[in-house]
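User: Sequence recovery, please. Input:
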């Protein structure tokens, strides 16, 4: 395994962890933990995709990371009544 595989592998692990935790109802898809796991995972997978020079994977992970950031920011907004 090289550095790129390790970086990408850790990132994908965080994304899959978020997916598994929501699937098994350990966290909700609107929780801060969910967004943080996706933010870390997406960022690391994005970094790995740049190292791999994979344009489709880079686009996917960039969007994944941006969506996680938006979700995390919105999770701090006051609840609507």
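Assistant: Recovered sequence (81 residues):
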């Amino acid at each position: 395994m090289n550095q790129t595989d390790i970086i990408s592998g850790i990132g994908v692990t965080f994304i899959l962890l978020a997916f598994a935790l929501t699937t098994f109802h350990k966290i909700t898809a609107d929780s801060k933990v969910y967004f943080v796991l996706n933010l870390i995972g997406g960022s690391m997978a994005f970094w790995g995709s740049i190292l791999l020079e994979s344009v489709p994977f880079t686009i996917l992970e960039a969007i994944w990371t941006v969506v996680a950031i938006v979700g995390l920011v919105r999770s701090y907004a006051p609840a609507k009544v």
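The chain has a mean pLDDT of 96.
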